[in-house]
User: Which sequence fits this backbone?
């Protein structure tokens, strides 16, 4: 099977653009804070090995929310759809957990 260098470059370029857009977009504080979370914080949320995958999915979600120009309520609704681990990780991000929509989410799950 041949290795497609051009396809890899295109994927990397697209990933860089998504990250750059997220850093410059309306959720830039959330994206930056999420990216800077200590890996130990994520590992300590549950003993499940999928926490890291959920963390990466959460980062992708914030990138997509920026690209799709979602509002805070839509972002929080998508986090809720991701489940309790995503909610727990998002709760560690003060710029996200401080949103009224996120506080309402915690009230719903209590």
Assistant:
């Amino acid at each position: 099977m041949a290795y497609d260098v051009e396809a890899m470059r295109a994927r990397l370029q697209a990933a860089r653009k998504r990250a750059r857009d997220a850093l410059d977009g309306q959720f830039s504080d959330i994206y930056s804070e999420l990216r800077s979370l200590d890996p130990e914080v994520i590992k300590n949320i549950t003993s499940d090995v999928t926490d890291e995958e959920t963390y990466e999915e959460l980062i992708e979600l914030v990138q997509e929310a920026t690209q799709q120009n979602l509002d805070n309520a839509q972002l929080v609704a998508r986090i809720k759809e991701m489940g309790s681990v995503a909610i727990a990780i998002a709760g560690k991000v003060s710029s996200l957990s401080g949103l009224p929509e996120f506080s309402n989410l915690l009230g719903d799950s209590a």
